[in-house]
Amino acid sequence: MKYIVVLGDGMADYPVEKLGKMTPLEAAKKPNMDYMASRGELGMVKTVPDGIKPGSDVANLSVMGYDPQKYYTGRSPLEAASIGVPLKDEDVTFRCNLVTLSDEKEYENKTMIDYSSGEISTDEARKLIEAVNAELCTDVIKFYAGVSYRHLMVWENGSTDVNLTPPHDISDRKIGNYLPNGEGADKILEMMKKSEQILKEHPINKERIQAGKNPATSIWIWGEGKKPVLDSFYGKFGIRGSVISAVDLIKGIAKCAKMKSIDVEGATGNIDTNFDGKARAALSEITGDSDFLYIHVEAPDECGHRGEIENKIKAIELIDEKIIGFLRENLKNIDYKMLILPDHPTPLSLKTHVSDPVPYVIYDSRKESFSDRTYTEKQAKETGIYRDKGFELMGYFLDKV
Questions:
Q1: How many CB atoms lie within 10 A of CB 34?
Q2: Which residues of the chain form CATH 3.40.720.10?
Q3: 73-125: pLDDT as tens digits
Q4: Span 128-155, average pLDDT
Q5: Mean predicted lDDT score pLDDT of the chain
Q6: Of 16-25, 81-90, 269-278, 284-293, which range is least confident?
Q7: Among 167, 175, 170, residue whose Cα is nearest residue 107
Q8: Which residues contact 49 (CB under 8 A, 6 or more apart)?
Q9: 237 and 398 in contact (C-beta within 8 Å)?
Q10: What pTM was computed for the model?
């Protein structure tokens, strides 16, 4: 038996007025998801425990079978694992976004224009982070380049008692009410302000402005945490697995769980990602040595953060056609189970994550049953199946409970 998870990050949503009060899942043409919903177990699962912020870090840990209340130590340490940054026990890591802020003179009066600096390229971003590190690094603080706008700061003996806000939570808002506060906040804010001067005159940003692209005008520090310790996925479930994702967070979880992380050329984490390449890599893995495969697609979440209605629908349709449809067609002679779900909703109306339960479907190719259900939030709720501990779903899916 082969086991496949297809996770559309942030795919769930609320009814959208412009869609006739349908959600993107209801509006999307997704025959493969609907086929599996009509022949599988459809229900709702709560992936984010009460009292924990609804980040993709927490939610994906939960979906992978790790209780966030036991295993979660912060987002950035997982990303550090992905990009190979060695951490000491006393290190505190932080996510460091390259963002576009408005041009008011006083930093506190600026607005969060773009949390991704126009989805800046990894090569451009690396040069900017190198410039920031050259000016701001100390004996105890270092900056490391990641992918696109997502980077890392490591602070030896830094504080975790600091309140920091994810930049994608405050799109189009004045940043004054969301600046760092708590222990170590003054130093963090000082670096954010200094970065503005470092980045302002950088040739990369001048080129981006000339090309009509958003420049990276500041770093934004958030997502603090300490070195993670995860039990191996094989140790927990007795099954060897692989992960396919474009983002460092998910790759980091894979590495910490001692799973194989597959890189796919052209995988970006956005709607322009290489869907076909991910699908081909998935087929190669699941028909090879791996018995478990976790395919993570970031695109719906990015569209949700940007409020892009049509692109979010398109992202869902591409996941359905390019990944799920491709695997269905090519696994006809193999017994497999497939779990399809988001990690959390990213409502277009809010442009950020929420903790609401999400719809899931488990399809077993060996079983033939039929209903008229489709894969939507509403129909998943109507089944009455509700799992309030998201981290227990994986064991159930893998036939371990």
A1: 20
A2: 2-73+230-397
A3: 888 989 898 888 989 989 999 999 999 999 999 999 999 999 999 999 999 99
A4: 96
A5: 95
A6: 81-90
A7: 175
A8: 58, 62, 67, 68, 69, 390
A9: yes
A10: 0.86
pLDDT digits (tens, 9 = 90+) for 235-245: 999 999 999 99
What is the rounded distance in angstroms from the CA atom of residue 207 to the CA atom of residue 190? 26
% of the chain with per-residue pLDDT over 70: 100
Q: Tell me which DSSP letter residue 135 carries.
A: H
Q: 32: which 2 tokens?
A: 């493969």
Beta bridge partners of residue 12, listed in sequence order: 345
Backbone angles phi, psi at 97, to 5 degrees: -80, 150
Which amino acid appears at position 347 of this protein?
Answer: P
Tens of pLDDT, residues 8-48: 999 999 999 999 999 999 999 999 999 999 999 999 999 99
- DSSP codes, 45-71: E--S-TTS---HHHHHHHHTT--HHHH
Q: Does domain 2-73+230-397 have CATH number 1.10.3860.10?
A: no
C-alpha 344/C-alpha 59 separation (Å) is 6
As beta bridge partners, residue 338 has 4, 363
Strand-pair category, 358-364 with 41-45: antiparallel
pLDDT at 227: 86
Please enumerate in sequence order all residues whose Cβ is within 8 A of that of 17, keeping only pairs 6 or more positions apart, or say none: none
- Please tell me the distance from the alpha carbon of residue 151 to that of residue 206, in angstroms, as a whole number: 21
The answer to whether the beta carbons of residues 55 and 353 sit under 8 Å apart is yes
What pairs with residue 241 in β-bridges? Answer: 292
Q: Quick one: tokens of 96?
A: 């460091």
| Other CB atoms within 10 A of residue 177 CB | 9
Our CA angle for 218, 224, 227, nearest 5°, is 130
Q: Which two tokens stand for residue 90?
A: 């006393």
CA distance 353 to 370: 33
Q: Which helix (H) or strand (E) holds 113?
A: strand 112-114
